Amino acid sequence: MLKYFRVKQQPEKVVPDLGAISLSLLERDATLPFTIRQLNNLPEHVKQRMYRGLIPPALLTRFGIDPIHWTDTNKEPRVFLKAEENSEKVLITAQSSPAASDEFFALELADNALNGVELNLIVLNDPTSPRYSIDHLEDGAPTMFGTLKRNRNAEEQAMQAGLAPGQVRAGLGGSRRVFEQVEAFLSMLGHRAYFLEPLTYVSAWVFERRGFAYVRGHKLMDDIHREFQPGGKLYECLDDGSSFRKQEQAGTVRGRAWAIHDGILEALDLRWDNLRMVKQIGRHAGVETFPQAVY
Question: Which of 70, 137, 202, 216: disulfide with 164, CB 3.0–4.6 Å?
Answer without folding.
Answer: 202
